[in-house]
Design brief:
The protein has 329 residues and is of the alpha/beta class. It has 13 helices and 12 strands. The protein folds into 2 domains: 4-201, inorganic pyrophosphatase (n-terminal core) (Alpha-Beta Complex); 206-328, Diaminopimelate Epimerase, Chain A, domain 1 (Roll). Helices cover 42% and strands 19% of the residues. Strand 9 (262-268) and strand 10 (273-280) form a beta hairpin. Helix 1 packs across helix 5 (136-147). The relative contact order is 0.10. The mean pLDDT is 94.
């Protein structure tokens, strides 16, 4: 039987026009995977476009080739989506995670390819999904090898970025010896450790430090000390002159307090939605909690977005979290 990576590679080889995309609010793994695959397919002479829901956050501007990415506009991109020979969804298992473009993806006529390490959902007819992989970039490396193209420094650095980002510098429980071996191979192929780490963790705007201090001083815990949570509202972002992209990593700070098994970050959005970020450790599985609110993710890291009043949502989520921990005892 053909391996999933070989099936995906053959689908891409047989396609002329290929559209790449990732989830809304793109991160280091989704963008690293997309830019690496963009370079690999370009070596084969394919007509490739990278279209995403949101602008690329400034911290990822160092990725070689990221400037080719296009922010989705239905009047100019729906035709391209409908006529693409193949659409590749990276680091997301369902079209709804792409944001505004999901309706166009659902009706597209070309091959629908999914490369992801989240639990599989309904979208896609050709899939490489492995929930044991530490990042989507680990899986894209398999595709690049199957395509038999050169792993250039540009591809290596993009893949290394996703591995570093999604493992939180190789600290998450799903980090394996395979992850470390692949990371070493990418460094050997030309990825710059200093460049990647400076971009991901050493170039935050000054306002983030002030916001971080407010977040930490405002952390709350339940009576058992097992649940910690913090809230960021729009007024906080405005005061420190930053956007929600700087909140990356905040929920991990809440999890780092002694005795905490479940951490939650509530982020008030601009249009009435509340972002939920969950982190767990020990026997706590947070993707089941995220699924209660229409989201998903991994066993130890998950998220969701809910419309409504933030104070009401906080109460509802905390009750669900308390119920989850009661079952986990």
């Amino acid at each position: 039987m053909n391996k999933p990576s070989s099936l995906v590679a053959q689908t891409l080889i047989d396609s002329r026009t290929i559209l790449l995309t990732t989830h809304k609010d793109p991160d280091g793994d989704g963008l690293g995977a997309a830019t690496a695959l963009y370079h690999a397919l370009s070596q084969l002479g394919k007509d490739v476009r990278l279209i995403i829901n949101d602008p690329v956050p400034q911290r990822y501007s160092f990725l070689y080739g990221i400037e080719v990415s296009e922010v989705y506009k239905n009047d100019s991109h729906d035709v391209a989506i409908s006529h693409a020979d193949a659409i590749v969804l990276l680091d997301a298992a369902t079209a709804s995670r792409t944001g505004r473009m999901h309706r166009a993806l659902l009706s597209a006529s070309g091959h629908k390819v999914v490369i992801d390490h989240h639990p599989i959902r309904e979208w896609g007819d050709v899939k490489l999904v492995n929930t044991k992989a530490a990042s989507t970039c680990e899986l894209v490396e398999q595709i690049v090898v199957a395509l038999e193209v050169e792993i250039t420094p540009q591809i290596a650095e993009a893949l290394y970025t996703g591995m570093v980002y999604d493992t939180q510098c190789f600290m998450t429980p799903n980090t394996t010896s395979i992850t470390h071996k692949l990371a070493a191979q990418m460094l050997t192929a030309g990825a710059s450790l200093e460049r990647v780490h400076d971009a991901l963790f050493g170039s935050w705007p000054q306002g983030r430090l002030g916001l971080q201090g407010r977040f930490l001083s405002g952390l709350k815990s339940d009576t058992s000390g097992r649940i910690s949570w913090g809230i960021i509202k729009q007024e906080d972002l405005h005061e420190y002159q930053v956007d929600a992209a700087v909140l990356d990593g905040f929920v991990n700070m809440a999890l780092s307090t002694a005795g905490t098994e479940l951490a939650i970050l509530f982020t008030e959005g601009k249009t009435g939605e509340v972002g939920l970020s969950f982190r767990g450790r020990g026997g706590v599985v947070v993707n089941t909690l995220a699924e209660l609110f229409g989201g998903g993710g991994h066993r130890r890291a998950a998220g969701a977005s809910v419309k409504g009043d933030i104070e009401i949502i906080v109460c509802e989520v905390l009750q669900a979290a308390t119920d989850l921990l009661s079952e986990a005892k």
